[in-house]
Design goal:
single chain; 181 residues; mainly alpha; two-stranded antiparallel sheet; 6 helices; 4 strands; 49% helix
């Protein structure tokens, strides 16, 4: 059996990798596939794991498509905005910001990791999970430590995404639009 701390490390690294790149890190995949527990597992278990990985990627694409559908975020981020004057860009950003915020409020419930006020003193407990609190600055010693809260962080409390579409549409962020004259 894989050690608890190793499983926690793998879980965190997989979460970050899936959200950022859409895939599990190769070293973790190899380690899990070659572990004694994995080698005794049957083929259906591997197929289920592959389907779960595909579903995770599909869900990431779905979130991106929701931001595109409701806020045109992908269009905005892929467009070269350098030729536009700041005033025109600022007006566009306000609209995109409001629409993106509505998408978050509708589908993902967020909460701060730490509830304190930014730029105020805070004590970091000794049992911190490094995924939840990042120590910055002159970091010496081990927690508990005192510092100043620079960012409260965010954690997901709830996700309520609509059902995934069937078929090939799961990889489409936004369909192409063709106007017929």
């Amino acid at each position: 059996m894989i050690a608890f701390s190793t499983r926690v490390s793998y879980a965190f690294r997989c979460l970050v990798a899936i959200l950022s790149k859409g895939e599990i890190p190769q070293d973790i995949a190899r380690a899990l596939i070659t572990s004694p527990a994995a080698s005794s597992a049957k083929a259906p278990a591997r197929a289920a794991a592959e389907k779960t990985s595909d579903d995770s990627i599909d869900r990431a694409v779905q979130v991106l498509s929701l931001f595109q559908r409701d806020a045109r975020l992908v269009d905005f981020l892929t467009e070269d905005v350098s030729p536009y004057p700041d005033s025109q860009l600022g007006a566009a950003v306000r609209t995109i910001h409001a629409s993106c915020r509505q998408v978050l409020e509708r589908y993902v419930k967020l909460a701060p990791v730490l509830s304190g006020e930014e730029d105020q003193p805070v004590t970091v407990p000794s049992d911190i999970d490094p995924a939840t609190i990042k120590l910055v600055g002159n970091v010496v010693g081990t927690p508990p430590v005192k510092g100043v809260l620079r960012h409260r962080g965010w954690k997901v409390k709830e996700v309520s995404l609509p059902s995934l579409p069937q078929g090939a549409g799961r990889k489409i962020v936004a369909p192409a639009e063709v106007e017929i004259a």
